[in-house]
Write a structure and sequence with these properties.
Layout lengths: L1 H25 L15 H47 L23 H10 L14 H8 L21 H11 L8 E3 L3 H4 L2 E6 L9 H10 L3 H6 L1 E3 L4 H12 L4 E5 L5 H10 L2 E4 L4 H15 L2 E2 L6 H17 L5 E5 L5 H13 L4 E7 L4 H8 L11 H4 L9 H10 L2 E5 L1 H15 L5 H11 L10 E6 L6 H14 L3 E9 L2 H13 L3 E8 L9 E9 L3 H14 L4 E3 L2
Parallel strand pairs: 2-10, 3-4, 3-6, 4-5, 7-8, 7-10, 8-9
Antiparallel strand pairs: 1-2, 11-13, 11-14, 12-13
Amino acid sequence: MTSTVKLSSAQELASKAQVGMMDGRGAGVVGTASPGSLLPPYGAVVGVVLHLFVYFVALLYSYAEQLFTKRDNRKVKKQDAPARCELHCYKEGPIRNGHVGQRPPSINPERLKDFGEEEYLNGDVKTWEMKIVSRNEELLRDALDPVAQPNSRPSRPTCNKLIRFEDISAAAFKIQSGVQKTPCMYSRLSKQYGMEIYLKKEFLQYTGSVKERGVLYLLTSLQQEQQRKGVIVASDSNFSMAVAFHASELRIPVFVIMSTSTSPVRVKMCREYGALVISYGTTAKDSQIHAKRLAQENGYLYLEEEDSAMYLSGLGTMGLEIYEQVPKLNAVIFPAGGHCGLLAGSAAALKHLNPHIAVIGVESESFPVLQQSLKTGNPIEDQPCSNHQFYGDMNGPCFGTNSLQLTGKLVDKVVTVREEDVLISMLRLLEYERATVDAEGAIGLAALVAGKLPELKNKRVAITVCSGNLELPLMRQCIDRALILDNRVCKFSLLLSDCPGDISKLLEILTREEVRVLDIKQEHAFVTSDLFSIEVTCIIETRDKIHTAQLRNALLERYPTMTWTER
């Protein structure tokens, strides 16, 4: 304020001096001014300097404020950038399973149907982070290191990327209205094997297979332009059945190429699901070549079962359901084999939710593809299998590097079983659970039938029964063979005299032992021991092994020369 007053007085003095000069000029008098009178006074100089100082301070303050604001904005962008990168790209480095900083509360499987509606439909995609307080977090993070696929297929527009728990949660929300939430029920087989057994009945899906989960999520993730053009597959597997059904439900044109040797029942089912089925070639390889050519010429997307992120995430949703339906689980048993996508995807979900749950895979002893691949560290492509019709989807080549890496890091154990064990487990499921399943659906229980998992005694175990596509002629053969392996259908032959009384005495013994005679026949011409002797062959059915042993002892007492046909 003082400087302002001094400046005003300086201005008044300057104006008075100017008036004096004008008066002198007007009067025609030429005056000589002293040098000191031309300089501004001291107060005016101080005021001007103060004004300039305040002005420069204000400029510096404004510049500093803008500078700090820009730095804060940069920090916010840097904090937000990893989240967006984790959602949309996985190529630059390892994917983190955790998130530093304050996180929203973790999502339980019970809330999967609730958390995604607003976040996924009304705004940007958001993810929920969960953290494992155990070394399994490092295992899952290590398992999710991006792996370059050497033999990438140009027909697939999407690249393979490894899955996270958030991907599985997103898949569960997206497919919840398109697939069944199958029951996981306590089994009557529990007492027989000395543990609490819960069966996850995935064979109750519309196409009878768990493959629907991965297929539906894969199809819904396609671009609209590709959905308009259509998809094409070349196999008679459960994967093709699921593609045929869900593509038709989504109004996506779907074509299935099958070889001429495919079962007519499979062809009929695939057409009923809504696919256009084309029979071509005598082998599966011929069908695949033809399908790829049609895809290239017409713009179809050629689909085959592989370990893409979308497919594995969809399959992994079954692990979420098991964790939700069975509390305090100790172990979960899955089918393995070459197509180990269900094992890998579900293991990622289960180990994230509870790292103490043991995840076990079971494959056939005839072609242990997964065990050999884990030993070598690389997928085994060519593995001979002589029983394609029985094992179905399990006898294919190893799934891929991504699934193999997840399996190696997260799966606790992989065991092998014999074909006989699989057949008996099919029989047990039919008798105790009224479930008609194929080899892929029964192989999990076969590990318990064979006694390969003694450490699970008195534990709570869930077994995935994931497929029930068993054709009627094959089912008859499997059940008949299983009854023989279980010592419940037996065959014996003995020599009798050619008179009605001896045969009636044999039938009396069988009646007394309470067995059921399935077949009996007599042979005269080829008996060389005695002209008046006949050979009688009987096929009978008993209750169990103990009943069979009792019958055998009774017959040996009466007929010492009896021949008992071993299985």
